[in-house]
Fold:
Amino acid sequence: MTHKPTDTADEIRGVVAALLGTDPQNIPGDTNLVLLGLGSLEVMRLSSRWRREGLPVEFEVLVAAPTIDSWARHLDAVRPDTD
Structure:
């Protein structure tokens, strides 16, 4: 099954919202997550989590563009097509 970009963004938004203790709808896709309060430790944990899931996601890539939209594009680009 192919992962749609909106699915990926919604998945990330849910995870980040849980970390920040807010509703996922309060996190616009283009907002800098660091400015919303997501710390480097949480970003490191997310990159480690995605690597454990088999996705080649590096911490440096995430901190270079810390937005839901950017992360979703990156995860979709590195996620294997399972069709």
